[in-house]
Amino acid sequence: MKKQKLVLIVFLFLGLIVTSITAQEKSNSLLWKIEGDSIQTSYIFGTIHLLPQEDYVLKDSVKNAFEKSDVIYLELDLDDPSFMKDMMKYSMLEEGDELKAHMDSTEYVFLNQYMNKNIGVGLKQLNRFKPLSLTSMIMTTFMGKQLASYELTFINMAKEAEKELKGLETIESQMAIFDEIPYDEQIDDIIKMLKSPDETKKLYANMITLYKAENITKLFESMEDYFDNDQEMMKSLLFDRNENWVQQIPEISKKQKVFYAVGAGHLGGDKGVIQLLKSAGYKVTPVLD
């Protein structure tokens, strides 16, 4: 897998993928207003799942949009009582399969040493988990100790405001996307990531910087190169999900004002959520400070 594709997929899974730092344009925004004759005025905000606390900013414009909304929709209903149970279920390999079966002995020793040293748990305890779970754990070691989460913030804000929180898709459908990548290839990519930590750190640093610049167009434009023109993966990871969400949004917003929060990588591009909503006849405008 070229260019550490799995690492990039995990970045997108956490919120977005980026490649270069660009100047911010006047229309740049992570927050957009959605209006139309058949819907209640709603908002959509691009998130990044985890980032260093010092880079975390929740603007007043986002807080105001949240307060104006009646219900909150994330990609997943992270506040669902069954969420952790379902996450555990779909993070596990099928019965009879095990993680070590998808790597050679050299890879096993290398990964086991890294996990013990940096996570505090070895592969023996993780042998029933899918490689994606391993990757998610490892990525936190590149992010620093003090982390913040927009999704967690919105969950807490929803509780305090007694607003209902829901999800646009299920953990089953989201995790199924990653199962399309052979597990042995995912392990290979984890090894590449750990053997080139400077590249991974640079990628993550650029991701944070460009996210803070709020340039959703450039965020999307970077993806095709990162995915090595893998249109099939782009389709399953981005385009199909974008279309599914845009089909849901008009129905959801028909009788209530909604605050949607999804990975920022889903917003830009001709097949991004913003353009798809515009093509469907809705007025979608950036909320600028």
Report on this model:
The protein is α/β, with parallel strands linked by helices. The protein has one domain (2-14, 27-286). The protein has 12 helices and 8 strands. It has a 6-stranded mixed beta sheet with strand order 6-4-7-2-1-8, with helices on both faces. The protein has a two-stranded antiparallel sheet with strand order 3-5. Strand 1 (31-35) and strand 2 (42-47) form a beta hairpin. The relative contact order is 0.26. The model is unreliable at 14-26 (pLDDT under 50).
Strand order of the largest sheet: 6-4-7-2-1-8
| Helix share, percent | 40-55%
**DSSP summary, beta strand count:** 8
Average of pLDDT: 87
Structural class: alpha/beta
Please give the structural blueprint:
Layout: H1 5-14, E1 31-35, E2 42-47, E3 51-52, H2 60-68, E4 71-74, H3 83-91, H4 105-118, H5 131-139, E5 147-148, H6 150-161, E6 164-167, H7 171-178, H8 183-195, H9 197-213, H10 216-226, H11 231-252, E7 258-263, H12 273-279, E8 283-286
Parallel strand pairs: 2-7, 4-6, 4-7
Antiparallel strand pairs: 1-2, 1-8, 3-5
Structural key phrases:
49% helix, globular, 289 residues, single chain
Give a short overview.
The chain is α/β, with parallel strands linked by helices. It has one domain. The chain is built from twelve helices and eight strands.
